[in-house]
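User: structure tokens for this one?
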Amino acid sequence: MLKVFLNHSIVYTLGNILSRGIGILLIPLYTRFLNPTEYGIVDLFMIIGTIINLTIAMEVTHAIARYYQEANSKQEKKEYVSTAFWFTLIVYGIYLIGSLLFIEELTLFVIGELSYKNVYLLATFSIFTSGIFYFTQNQLKWQMQPKNTMIVSVLNVVIVATMATILLLFTSLRLESIFIAQSVGNIVAMMLAIYFARYNYSFTFILNKLKEMLTFSYPLVFSSVAVFISMYADRIAIQQILDLEQLGIYAIAFKFASIAGLVMYGFQSSLLPLITKHYKEIDTPKSLIEIFNLFCFFAFIIIFGAITFSKEVVVLFTTEQFYSSYELIPILVLAVFLSNMYIFAPGLWLYKKTKTMTKISIFTCILNVVLNYLLIPYLGLVGAAIATFLSSSLSFILYVYQSQKYYYLEFNWIKLATLFLVTIVLACLIQYHLDKIIALNIIIKIVCLFIFIIGILFSFNYDKYLITRFKRIK
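Assistant:
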């Protein structure tokens, strides 16, 4: 299992690096053609799209993740996939038609100005296409096709980047360019994803299969919405308490903080199908502990780098009006990691305790909302980042606590917590004393990063968490 995981995670991580790398390279283009208010509108529709993706299809794609590997035959697998696909297409079609019928009212409600009617129309179609693409892309992961998943992901981003660049440079379109590019990228990548998994798609719709999947997945809708609110409550609160300009600055910080996903995505995408398939095997708990330690090794390096080089990255890729966002990146990187680390507490998922998962998500969601509205008036954007970090931390702790009751994993929490604290303290001290952007400081930071990598490598080697494991694989 460990060897398969490493092979799959490398492919997923490579694809994610390419996709996110292209996305980051687009930031200079976006920040030069879009002002903070317009960028805030783009981020607002991203939030709306996420809500739609989490709710109207009732997370049926995650039911496939749970049932696909345990299906008794290829025909039964096809029945699960096809039924879920047509259900997803139907509900997104209803959403699209409903949005078109009430386009003016929705434009005024969401943006507040009817002049953005065409923008809302294009954004709605982009959300529709992204929902179908999201389903077809996930299906490749559930079938454990990492290379094909990487291909469609990178293709999607390349098309979006190319079209957005051409439209922004050679037409008078601004916000419209972003949503047109997203729609085209989603459609092309979706068609390729369907082709890669074509043997699991057919004109089949079995109501009993749909009921079975929705019985499992419908509690996840409430859980996912709660997780979404926890992740985006900061942005909603910023829009209400501050303004769209501040939201645009925060959105840039979050975009850079998402570099944490370079590690997280590869681990998540490859680990969930493998856990579902192998969790009953006697060696699986040991393999999961090894994978978690490997994850922590890379996570600590990324956290250290994100804190020490946050200012340099923002100055390099954005304009002066966005420079203040660098102060938020370290806190948000930690929040991004913690909010996605539930994958290493699989007990609730494996034993179908979706209601418990929902309770945890709702509780931490309420906490996050309260903290945001308490801290933002006094601390501004920093308060929003702190609120997100604290609620993400509690969510991970509760997931681990509950999961251990059903699927116990013997993690070395003292060791990992100590390394985590050392990473943060060292990185913050370096950033504080080398805050000025000059060549000498950058060179010193690079040397410090190199020394830190060596130190963290020896730390894991001492406890046989890294080098010994790679030798065993060979």
